[in-house]
Design brief:
Blueprint (H helix, E strand, L loop, with lengths): L19 H13 L1 H6 L3 E6 L4 E7 L4 E9 L5 E14 L4 E6 L3 E11 L2 E6 L2 E15 L3 E2 L3 H4 L5 E6 L5 E3 L6 E3 L3 E9 L2 E10 L14 H8 L5 E2 L3 E5 L5 E8 L6 E8 L7 H11 L1 E2 L9 E4 L9 E6 L4 E6 L16 H8 L4 E2 L3 E5 L5 E7 L13 E6 L5 H11 L1 E2 L8 E5 L5 E6 L4 E6 L3 H9 L1 H4 L4
Parallel strand pairs: 8-14
Antiparallel strand pairs: 1-2, 1-8, 2-3, 3-4, 4-5, 5-6, 6-7, 7-8, 9-12, 10-13, 11-12, 13-14, 15-16, 16-17, 17-18, 18-22, 19-20, 20-21, 21-22, 23-24, 24-25, 25-26, 26-30, 27-28, 28-29, 29-30
């Protein structure tokens, strides 16, 4: 892994670098304990958002340090260590610096290019430059402040400033004045004649949460986060009254099929401290502007660079001071699979009056580009009948683009070559609870829960009946 300082699942010993020119000053300082005096009793930060990776060393004078880090490997996996206790020691013979811990193993490297306010930790994995953490500031969005740098840097000249993340906080390169925007944490480099130190800036954003994260949650998960003492609670939505902060109402709306949150809305109190222009700037820093949805009466955003990648749409209505976050669905046609396991009464309450109904199934005609009918089957073998939906069949229209359907199924589900043939393509869901069969001969798509081996055999034997509404 690029720039990985600590290997989490194995123990490696890094060989000390042998560049005498780089290390001579450090060796002398270690012998004279000059470096030791400056190194211990402080926090040191390595922060590279572009990787993205963050580390903090909290060093004490008894040979103990606490290490914290986080590194995002991809969009789904983040490895985090918080306050891992380590021991550190110097090896003056080769200018080595050794860190050991039960969790992280043993790591050896060389400290080079040391200055009062920074040092470089050099290993075979690369060089990592840490800055002295001077102070931590907490501030609200759109506030501006200038730290008292003169009290933080007393023995060097300051030559400039820079921000690690301009979306969170900008800094004037000459004066050090900091203006913050979106919520989050970033660092401001304080560049001096004795190295580059950092100040940490923690910003409380206009929005207390990234409400996109609540999309797809179930009712119990909302209760766990916000409690059951709501202003109103129905099958379709939960409303909370908010006493603190800029917003007065928080509403979660649920998909009646899945029972999961598909829309979140928050409404600001009268005369909030932020302006509409500031909200627009804030949303620009948090999300991606969506020009097609933006008008004179609303600002539209998505949570990804392109609409095809986005899972949530965000709209701010300046007149009503309301923010609405809703799920973006990229399905080629309606996903009826949440109705698996529903009774006939439940299906009818959600779908309306059926086109046809028997003991075996309920059928609905569809006005859809790709689908002509949907059938909810209460049997797999036409001998045994269940009170709940066992399979759902979709009748694909004659003129529907087969290639588009296959491409869609491949993107949404996992193709199973072992159970597929030239005329019947089989897929399963990522959570391995659902199987989907697209029969090219009968132009039918069948959704069912992952069956037992016997049920699967019976289902294949009766597949022709399931594919026809008879």
């Amino acid at each position: 892994m690029k720039n990985l300082l600590y290997l989490l699942f194995a123990t490696f010993v890094f060989v000390a670098c042998s560049n005498d020119d780089d290390n001579s000053t450090v060796i002398d300082d270690l012998k004279n304990e000059t470096f030791l005096d400056c190194f211990v009793g402080h926090k040191w930060v390595y922060d590279h958002p572009e990787i993205p990776r963050w580390e903090e060393w909290n060093v004490f004078d008894d040979g103990v340090m606490y290490f914290s880090n986080s590194e995002k490997y991809n969009s789904d996996i983040t490895i985090t260590n918080e306050d891992v206790k380590c021991n550190y020691a110097y090896n003056l013979q080769n200018a080595g610096f050794i860190i050991t811990s039960e969790k992280l193993g043993t790591t050896e490297g060389v400290i080079t290019n040391w200055n009062k306010y920074e040092f470089t930790w050099k290993t075979v994995a690369g060089s990592f430059t840490y800055g002295l953490l001077l102070n931590i500031y907490s501030i609200n969005s759109f506030e501006t402040f200038t730290p008292d740098y003169a009290s933080l840097i007393t023995d060097a000249s300051i030559t400039g400033f820079s921000s690690h993340d301009d979306k969170i906080a900008e800094v004037d390169g000459n004066t050090g004045e900091i203006k913050v925007f979106s919520g989050g944490r970033t660092y401001i480099d304080v560049i001096t004649t004795k190295g580059t130190a950092v100040v940490e800036v923690n910003v409380t954003g206009i929005l207390p949460y990234d409400y996109c994260e609540f999309l797809g949650l179930e009712r119990d998960e909302i209760y766990e986060k916000f409690g059951k003492s709501s202003y109103s609670d129905t099958d379709k939505q939960i409303m909370y009254l908010l006493s603190e902060g800029e917003f007065g109402y928080l509403v979660f709306r649920f998909d009646t099929w899945t029972g999961k949150v598909n829309t979140v809305s928050v409404t600001a109190k009268e005369n909030p401290s932020f302006t509409n222009d500031e909200m627009k700037t804030y949303l620009n820093s948090e999300y991606y502007a969506y020009e097609k949805g933006t008008t004179d009466t609303q600002y539209a955003y998505i949570n990804a660079e392109t609409y095809d990648e986005a899972t949530a749409g965000i709209i701010w209505y300046p007149k009503d001071r309301q923010l609405v976050i809703t799920t973006i669905n990229h399905d080629l046609f309606t996903d009826y699979s949440p109705l698996l396991g529903k009774t006939k009464d439940e299906v009818i309450s959600l779908m309306g009056t059926p086109y046809n109904t028997t003991d075996a199934y309920i059928v609905y005609g569809l006005n859809d580009k790709y689908l002509g009918m949907v059938g909810f089957y209460y049997t797999l073998d036409f001998i045994n009948y269940s009170s709940t939906v066992q399979a759902i069949t979709l009748s694909v229209k004659e003129d529907a683009d087969r290639a588009n359907i296959i491409e869609f199924l491949n993107k949404k589900y996992i193709f199973d070559a072992n159970y597929s043939t030239d005329t019947n393509l089989t897929f399963f869901s990522s959570d391995v609870t659902l199987t989907i069969q697209y029969n090219l001969e009968y132009k039918t798509i069948i959704y069912s829960l992952i069956p037992s081996a016997l049920e699967a055999k019976v289902m294949r034997m009766n597949s022709e009946k399931l594919m026809k509404f008879e």
